[in-house]
Specification:
With about 170 residues, this protein is an alpha+beta fold. It has 3 helices and 7 strands.
Length: about 170
C-alpha cells in the first residue's frame, strides 16, 4: 500500500508535492492472473491541494509480457498510463460512485495506480501494427514467408454449387 500524508499540502493555499516510486507488482496487489509485468512499475505523480479535495496527476511507466494476438510470438510491450484522480475527505456527500476518499489526512494511492495500470493494458497486443499473423490452414508465420494455402471459406450450403461451377 502506498499511503501519503497530505496534511502539509492541505495547509498551503496552492500546496503540492511530487513523488517518484519504483514498485514491484505486489505493491499494487497485482498477480500473474491480473497482468504479467516485466520489471518494475515506475510511478511519477503529484498531489495538489484542490480546496475541498486532493488532486492526483502523473504517469505510470511499465512493461507488459504477452504474445502477439496474430502470430503468437512472445513480446514485451512498454506502456504509459496517465493518472488523474480526485480524493475527497471521507464523509463528503454526493460523491460520484467511482470517487476515492481519504481520512485522517492520509491518501492511499494504491487503488488509483492499480486501476490506471489495468485499464491501460490492451486486450490484444500486436508485435507490430501490420502483423500478418499465422496461416489458419498450415500454421506458417506469414510475416516470415507467404504460404500458398487456400484460405477461402465456402458456405456449406453453396458447396454443391461450387462443384457444378468447376465442371
Amino acid at each position: 500500500m502506498i499511503k501519503i500524508n497530505v496534511a502539509e499540502i492541505k495547509k498551503q493555499l496552492i500546496g503540492s508535492a511530487s513523488y517518484h516510486y519504483e514498485l514491484d507488482p505486489e505493491a499494487l496487489d497485482l498477480t500473474e492472473d491480473d497482468v504479467s509485468l516485466e520489471g518494475q512499475v515506475v510511478a511519477d505523480f503529484t498531489l495538489h491541494n484542490g480546496g475541498e479535495m486532493i488532486l492526483l496527476d502523473g504517469k505510470l511507466h511499465f512493461s507488459v509480457k504477452g504474445e502477439c494476438g496474430r502470430c503468437l510470438k512472445p513480446l514485451v510491450q512498454p506502456l504509459v498510463s496517465t493518472l488523474e484522480e480526485r480524493y475527497y475527505p471521507e464523509g463528503t456527500e454526493n460523491l460520484p460512485d467511482d470517487a476515492f476518499t481519504y481520512k485522517f489526512d492520509v491518501v492511499d494511492v494504491t487503488d488509483a495506480l492499480r486501476e490506471s495500470l489495468l485499464l491501460t493494458v490492451p486486450a490484444r497486443m500486436l508485435c507490430k501494427p501490420d502483423c500478418k499473423g499465422i496461416c489458419p490452414v498450415c500454421g506458417a508465420d506469414r510475416n516470415v514467408a507467404p504460404c500458398n494455402c487456400d484460405t477461402r471459406t465456402i458456405d456449406p450450403r453453396l458447396q454443391a454449387l461450387e462443384a457444378l461451377l468447376e465442371k
